[in-house]
Amino acid sequence: MTTETTTGKRPGGRSAAVLVAVKRALEDLMAERGSDRVTIPMVAERAGVNPTSVYRRWGDLPSMINDIATYRLDPNRPMADTGDLREDLTSWTAEFVRHYSIPANAALLRAGAATAGETETDCLRNRRAEAGVILDRFGGDGPVSAEDIIDHVIAPIVYRVIYQPHTLSDATAPKLVNFLMGTR
User: Fold this and answer.
1) How far is CA 180 from the centre of its chain?
2) What does CATH list as the number for 13-59?
3) pLDDT digits (tens, 9 = 90+) for 106-127
């Protein structure tokens, strides 16, 4: 008889169910009340979990909002790999635009931006890492850097989500990538 032991967290299970419930509760409450009228106890009650569980995972409301603002953009998801830098960047950027064209996601980003402090958020850290993954496919010494992508592609999208959401469209991604790559 073989006895198998495992270490670490098991995939799925109760913690995954709690995470999904908390994220859904936060999204619903943000849509109903706005970020300045939501508290962790409210989120916990709506999710059907103890507030202690929420505090243990996130610590405070701003941290929770920043984490949940980008959770659907899983950093481990497959990204387009067409063999063409411009196409890969355009596909990735279009995904980002589609994500934040959804009102609940935009509201979470706005709230996350309003509560962002001096430290880099998961949103920025994950987008920088993804840009690096795309660039690494092409040797990493291409015509643009990850910081160029953040400054000229991601930042304008975030600005639009926060201040001009009506300007996001299917044309946004190719327009920004073409500008970045030097073709207008």
Assistant:
1) 21
2) 1.10.10.60
3) 888 887 776 666 666 667 777 8
User: 21, 48 in Cβ contact below 8 A?
Assistant: yes
Q: Encoding tokens for residue 162?
A: 């926060």
Helix (H) or strand (E) holding 63: helix 61-69
Compute the distance between CA of residue 87 and CA of residue 80 in angstroms, rounded to an integer. 8
pLDDT for the residue numbered 117? 65
**For 72-88, what is each residue's pLDDT tens digit?**
556 566 788 899 999 99
- Centre a 10 Å sphere on the Cβ of residue 116 and count the other Cβ atoms it contains: 16
Tell me the domain boundaries of the chain.
13-59, 85-180
Burial bucket for residue 82 (CB in 10 Å: 0-12, 13-18, 19+): exposed
pLDDT, mean of residues 90-119: 81
114: number of Cβ within 10 Å: 12
